[in-house]
Amino acid sequence: MPTTEASSESIALLIDADNAPAAKIDFIIAELASYGSVDIRRAYGNWKKAALSGWEKVLHDYAIQPIQHFDIVKGKNASDMGLLIEAMDILYTKNLGTFCLVSSDCDFTPLVLRLRADGKQVIGFGDAKTPAPFVASCTRFLYLDDDKKAKAVDKDKSGSSKKLKGDTKLMNLLRSAVDACADEDGWAPLGPVGQHIQNQGSFDSRNYGFSKLSGLFAAIDTFESKKTRNGNVSTFSVRIRK
Length: 242
Known about the structure:
Blueprint: E1 10-16, H1 25-32, E2 37-45, H2 53-56, E3 65-68, H3 79-93, E4 98-102, H4 109-117, E5 121-126, H5 132-137, E6 140-143, H6 149-153, H7 160-165, H8 168-181, E7 188-189, H9 190-200, H10 213-219, E8 223-230, E9 233-240
Parallel strand pairs: 1-2, 1-4, 2-3, 4-5, 5-6
Antiparallel strand pairs: 7-9, 8-9
């Protein structure tokens, strides 16, 4: 989970330049700032390709180290394997708690699972066509196509409740989290609910068009919400509508 205050967590940012848009680097760096300091920044690809010219223009501005991998066979690139090998080197030689993989390539799913098995947090970024196994394997995954969507949808929730309620997987996830954290009256504090959801797999409310989890719950009429105050501390709670 991203922190609300600046963190000293050290992060490795590994970019599959062949399968990631350079135009989204602002969003990626800004998002990672809420997790900690991006101390390792590398982008992998065959930099002789014209298709990577967009990345070449931003490498120096964001202190990203380009790692060259020539295509060994026509139509095949070696950069994926290079990224994987260096990720494992970092795992064993550096004291990092978080890895960030920027790619829409499902081939990195085993790498993500290996990193998480070693207790590492893995933040993924990719486009809307990223295969589900890669998305699900990450601690958190954000779609680069939708980095501005949350701000827009939060302001216009008309018709969104019906659409969200039609997402069976989402509804089961939200219901089970509320049930697990609820008191005898059915109310569950949002903090524990969010942690319960995150523990089950990759989830981010922004992928559903809401900048905050509270906004997502408020948009679904299956749930009701309330805010209570104890001194200077406010608590947002939700429960399944009776």
